[in-house]
Design goal:
The chain is mainly alpha-helical. It contains 13 helices and two strands. Strands 1-2 form a two-stranded antiparallel ribbon. The longest helix is centred in the middle third of the chain and has 57 residues. The protein is elongated. InterPro entries: CSR-E3_Ligase_Protein, DC_STAMP-like. It is a multi-pass membrane protein.
């Protein structure tokens, strides 16, 4: 492994064997990165498969030539890998989480809301139809009551009233109501579909922009680090490296490293400075805020499913409501229709019992609120695999918060292995700095 890394980090291969070894290394790296690049574009960014293949096939040969021919490019590319564990890598993973949540959970929420609206639509349709039928029943009752009155009055030959039936203006054709309800349901469905498409398109575009910017920034950050490493001896130069230890031992000044243990750290150690710990805590708090927002969306998904499932089950359990229409018409013996009695005596008719009778009748009707003919899509339960994937990604995100410091140290070690002569200059600079500080004290 050391020999392979030595060949990979050399500016120029020493012989033909190292040249072929370097080519094979770059080819293997290119094949793996090309496959990951295709999967990233097709699965995460949701580009078409032919565009993803075309981009991957165009990117892979260019990457192979760059890695094989350009030594600093190999160093930058090698530093990109640990840089994925820093802030930019977290942005990529966070954008992936957002994409997973929006693509998988948002349509689920909208689907359950549609189910709830379908239940309301079914209840409104059946209840309106039942109410229309009840008005028809009222019309039947009024006509029978009017017939009973007419039969009684017709027995009096001296008085002929007008038609005594109650006149009802009923909407016998309910198609207009159904049409309006159907149009309203279609409009609500179109509005929800437009919102769903808008959210998905916005997140897709935003995710592509964030992903593209993050990848460019990863390359820029690695290039910027290498540029500062090669031009500034003070940049990121506070580590007790093996070259610094060897230099101190050769000059019999090992005590310098012991006395400076509070200001210098070992790149392979687990010790974190106070500034590094505070930075990790701040990043963890920001990541927790993002996690809370994700959990709110997940909770909305479970809440929408619970409401939709309850609405469907309760709608199926709705029983018919019996309605009784009772008409009771009573004529007392004392009154006997006073105005008719006046005409009776005025015309000097025989004083006999007026032929008025009581009317009492009941009519049954049933109000229905649900029907088996209603088309209600079943509620969609939350997908537990989505929550599992998001949870695993956030575990990785929290891990990168505390691994970011070690990722920076690894970047420095990679740069030192690619430019060993410059690393010796940096070790010599740090040694002289410690010597001057020791003499001043």
């Amino acid at each position: 492994t050391v020999d392979l890394w030595s060949v990979y980090s050399k500016p120029v291969p020493a012989n033909g064997r190292e040249l072929w070894t370097l080519f094979l290394q770059c080819s293997c790296i290119t094949a793996v990165i090309g496959g990951l690049f295709y999967n990233w574009m097709f699965a995460s960014l949701e580009y078409s498969w032919h565009l993803s293949i075309a981009m991957a096939m165009s990117f892979s040969p260019l990457l192979l030539l760059t890695l094989f021919l350009v030594h600093p490019a190999r160093c930058v590319f090698s530093m990109i890998m640990p840089t994925l564990g820093t802030k930019q890598g977290r942005k990529l993973l966070l954008s992936t989480c957002v994409m997973i949540v929006v693509v998988n959970i948002t349509p689920n929420i909208i689907s359950n809301i549609k189910t709830i609206l379908q239940v309301f639509k079914c209840i409104c349709k059946n209840s309106s139809e039942s109410l229309l039928n009840s008005t028809a029943l009222l019309e039947t009752a009024s006509w029978e009551f009017g017939d009973a009155i007419q039969e009684t009055i017709h027995s009096i030959n001296t008085y002929r009233p007008m038609n005594g039936h109650f006149q009802f203006s009923l909407l016998k054709n309910s198609s207009f109501i159904y049409q309006q309800m159907h149009l309203a349901g279609e409009k609500i469905g179109r509005d929800f579909l437009a919102v769903e498409v808008l959210v998905k398109d916005s997140v897709r575009v935003g995710n592509k922009l964030v992903a593209g910017f993050s990848m460019l920034y990863l390359c820029f950050e690695s290039t910027w680090y290498l540029k500062n490493y090669l031009t500034n001896l003070r940049f990121d130069n506070f580590y007790i490296t093996k070259k610094l230890e060897r230099l101190a031992v050769d000059r019999k000044a090992a005590h310098l490293l012991v006395g400076s243990s509070k200001t210098l750290i070992r790149p392979t150690g687990l010790k974190l400075s106070r500034e590094e710990v505070m930075l990790c805590l701040v990043q963890a708090m920001l990541l927790t805020v993002a996690l809370m927002l994700m959990l709110v969306v997940v909770a909305m998904d479970h809440f929408a499913f619970s409401v939709a499932d309850t609405a469907v089950r309760k709608a199926a359990q709705f029983s018919t409501v019996p309605v009784t229409l009772s008409i009771k018409y009573h004529v007392s013996a004392g009154a006997k229709m006073g105005i008719l009695l006046f005409f009776w005596k005025l015309l000097q008719l025989p004083n006999e019992e007026l032929p008025l009778q009581d009317f009492e009748r009941s009519y049954q009707h049933y109000l229905t609120f649900s029907s088996a003919h209603c088309r209600i899509s079943p509620p969609t339960p939350p997908n537990p695999s989505v929550l599992l994937v998001v949870g695993l990604l956030f575990c990785i995100l929290y891990a990168t918060v505390f691994l970011e410091t070690y990722a920076h140290r690894l970047c420095r070690k990679i740069a030192g292995s690619f430019f060993e002569s410059w690393e010796e200059k940096r070790a010599l600079y740090l040694y002289k700095k410690l010597s001057r500080k020791h003499k001043e004290e």
